[in-house]
Amino acid sequence: MTELALRTTPRRTPHRRRTPGERASALVTGGWGPTLAVTYLSLLVILPVAAVVTNAFSGGWHAFWLAVTQPQALAALKLTLVCSVLVAVVNSVAGLAIAWVLVRDDFAGQRLVSAIIDLPFALPTIVAGLTLLTLYGPNGPFRVNVAGTRIGIVLALAFVTLPFCVRTVQPVLAELDKETEEAAASLGASHAGVLRRIVLPSIAPAMLAGAGLAFARAIGEFGSVVLISSNLPFKTEVASSYIYNLSQSNDLPGASAVSVVLIALALVLLLGIGALRRQFNVTEAA
Amino acid sequence: MTLEVPERSLTALLGPSGGGKSTLLRVIAGLETPDTGTVEIDGEDLTGVPVRKRGIGFCFQHYAPFRHLTVRRNVAFGLEVRRLGKAEVRAKVDELLDLVKLTAFADRYPSQLSGGQRQRMALARALAIEPRVLLLDEPFGALDAQVRKQLRGWLRDLHSKINVTTVLVTHDQEEAMEVADRLAIINDGRLEQVGAPAHIYDHPANEFVLQFLGPATELDGAWVRPHDLVLHRGPEAPGGRRATVERVTHLGFEVRVDLRLPAGGDVWVQLHRGSAAELHLAPGDQVWVSPSGTATARVPVPPASPLAVG
Amino acid sequence: MKKRRANWPRLSLRAGALGYLALLIVVPVGSVFYRAFQHGATAAWDAITTTDGLHALVLTLVVAGIAVPLDTVFGVGVALILARHRFPGAWLLDALVDIPLALSPVVVGLALVLVYGHTGWFGNWLAARGITVIFSVPGIVMASAVVALPYVVREVLPVLQEIGTEQEQAARTLGAGRVAVFRRITLPSIQRGLAYGMTLTTARVLGEFGAVAIVSGAILGRTQTLTLFISSSIENLDPVGAYTGSVILALIALAVLGLLALTSPGERRSRWPSRSPGSPSASAPLSPSTA
Hints:
By secondary structure, chain B is of the alpha/beta class. Chain B has 9 helices and 17 strands.
């Protein structure tokens, strides 16, 4: 016995009691869910970061500037930046080569290779540092010793940042339309020409983004570097080690000041990568 | 708009895409809330009631199957949510699967079914909870023409068996005419006309309805149906107008004759092959065209209508 | 099928790329296994089953047992909020979730000390209630939870956005309340993405070093995680202990890789997680083990 009617007349809101389940779930998604989430975020992220920034400027701009321009701090920052840039460049190229070999080549064990690339993602950095120290340190079988050198730092950073450079480029490379390259070839472009004019421009944004991510990761890297670098001040002490040492010797404002520099750098980078992504509409996750 | 749907009928909301039909259906279901207005089922005001308490069954254009559940579990979903006993659930589900002829597929997953089978599953799922009203949102829109035709007939049969009040949204007038016992023509948020399909076809309330439901052509300041026009070799019929044959196209069982009027303007006439054969028409011939005596679909052209001849 | 001709450029590129990988990753990791078992399996076993070693292992697992569920619940909740609701400031929530990826772990540790340490913002408040966070297990849990915060959100959010709301709407028309819809429809649909995110989270938590180093004080036998144990073993010239601990973590890492491969939600997974429109920052799931 159903009759269905619709009318455009003003509506009266009926009064209905909610079930306990409805009340609970309404609490979670309605008001309390976001509140709980924001509370969790505040306690774990917002307040702590605010505390660092506040602490860095607790003596005013002057103290902040002083802390950041301490010779040892400057040396650490400079070393960090130089090594990170170097690693970003090297791994961009290496990442492209590896991505190319994974996408365009065909050989047994390709899937294994692909899994290996993710190993630095999954391995604790202290373990990563230990592995590199074992092989390329004082007791290594290759009779090469990069412990306590800047090369060692670059090596460690290369280890942990390689996956970024491969995984950002790989999907873009995979989606490149072979037909545009074939068209270019039919119009007379050489292999190198096709690469230069067709392929590289397409993957340049992804490479740039990968380099950016690698750089952002490298400037903050600690665990893998700390073993192999020996943390020699002014020589092989990176910014994160410097911050660690200051915090252990209780110079918290000094540590905070240098931290603020790192935070600012990283945020600028990530904003840039985000803009880059939107601009060039790089692949989204499946 | 005010729309009343009689119980046990199969009413189609018909109209062009984007006209608001789906929105209306979703308002009935409670999946969307209207700014003003009420929804009543059986005299009960359901306007503020959440969707799960309205006792409606809903079928989506893309079936919305629960991909991680088998066909059986899909159909049983509403019953399991109501915490019915296992035996009872099983019995009901078996009955419904038999009704929609999916018993053999009970333990398959939706991804293993064809589109038509998925929609039948969705229908069984909706019917399992014994809804007061069944709402179908372009249920056959995503299917091939062939499957669509099959399912139309099947829906008609199902409805006569089950007899639950059904509201169907579609933009396909052929589908609506074939399946529904009542049509509601909706255009751009307006209810243009409501009534039985045959009645609306023969007595369209306005230009839009006439043009939407079937072929239309303009003659003597009114829109008429091309198959309601007759052609004569001589000026016998009253109200006949002289015209020149432009083109004769044979479309299988029907013949389309495009005519040009002396004052300018085009008209086309739909004849069936027999009549066309008798007339021996050729381009350039002079004929007389007039509405047939039984023509009822006739809507005056509104002044300054921008619509071209259909 | 076209057989690719082996030619010089291709072969040399292949050799170069694979060589780079071998020298950078494969051989170093292999050498750790070698060193751990160099003196025999017994020595390795002894090194790790010292009181300190076992304690470190247990502590690491306990911390993971708390931090991972916390981040998972948070992650699913935030993903649901961002996927199903529009509200002003959604972009901000989205960006805030990503912040841990931009922070060096030592900065995270420092930040937590500045808030929860005894000279920190909440220092007095906590001390008055007899709660110690820094230099104690709660601090380690917090540090681990922070660094792994974004992973579940990043993996679950795109899945939620992709599956859309139709199945949930259908479930509601069939009479399911919000809890039932979540339990029966939403949760099963996000299974894979959730598993992937939880795996990343776990790997990150287990591998955390820098933040934990600062926050825990690395007090032997009390607040040493396995990563800290490895580090102190090296300092104490106990290489076998360090290597054995590393092997354990390396094995876990390999297991993690296997799990990731199994639960990977898409075919060719791009490392650009899809984001809600208008969000300023971007990220890939940065390494689970930034130390």
